[in-house]
Amino acid sequence: MRKLKFHNVFFINGTAYAGKSTMVKLLAERHNGIACEENYHDSMLPGLDSREFPCLTYTRDLQDWHDFIRRTPDEYEAWIKGVSKECEILELQILEKLAATDKPIFVDTNISLETLREISDYNHVLIMLADPEVSVKRFFERPDREKQFLYRLMMEEPEPERALQNFRECLERINSPAVYDEFLHSGFQVILRDDSRSIEETLALVERELGLQK
User: How far apart are CA 134 and CA 120, in angstroms?
Assistant: First the structure.
């Protein structure tokens, strides 16, 4: 695909539990923009060819969700990396169409750091990071249906504690210190999660880093 410079698109990448989705939503509201929230490419999922997008269609075509939680950390990590690459293809297709608008576009993105350097200005990319341990420890604390569904599946396994430990190891693999450090030293602006900051304070910080303060 042809690489583009997205002049009216603001990208937020980083690790889980850093506040990316919240900031994208609030930025769009504050600046009369378009919010491309987490997994916004899911709208294209039903029409994807499993031969071209095997990782994204894995869960779409899955017959037994217990197979999802039984994968090894190696298998899980390989799938996550594959999903990110396939998501990038879809995101670029969507953003190329959306960029024709005059409105600012705020994206919770899977697009790689390498690609972001090619398609965006540095002051339109922000990295938000949470401690690598947070994603593992808090994964099942969120009330959303997806995470509670996975938890129930593990409780149905013959050895629930072993199933939980295996999944924690999968999460640790994709939220490793190495992943964190790659984001931290990417060259883009970085905001670290700080639970002492209010959401409004974090929003003001994000606006400053993206040059959106009025």
Answer: 29
**The amino acid at 50:** S
CA 75 to chain CA centroid, Å, is 19
Which pLDDT does position 3 carry in this prediction? Answer: 60
Q: Using an 8 Å Cβ cutoff, are 89 and 112 in contact?
A: no
- Can you tell me the distance from the alpha carbon of 14 to that of 56, in angstroms, rounded to the nearest whole number? 20
What are the angstrom distances between the C-alpha of 34 and each of 5, 10, 75, 176? Answer: 18, 10, 35, 31
Q: Which residues of the chain have pLDDT under 70?
A: 1-4, 142-143, 214
Say what the pLDDT of residue 1 is: 47
- Helix then strand count (H, E) for the chain reads 10, 5
Residue pair 147/139 in contact (Cβ under 8 Å)? The answer is yes
Residue 187 dihedral angles phi and psi, to the nearest 5°? 95, -15
Query: What is d(CA 140, CA 117) in angstroms, rounded to the nearest whole number?
Result: 34
User: What is the CA 27 to chain-centroid distance, rounded?
Assistant: 17
CA 192 to chain CA centroid, nearest Å: 16
Q: Cα dihedral sign for 125, 130, 131, 132? A: negative
Predicted TM-score of the model (pTM): 0.90
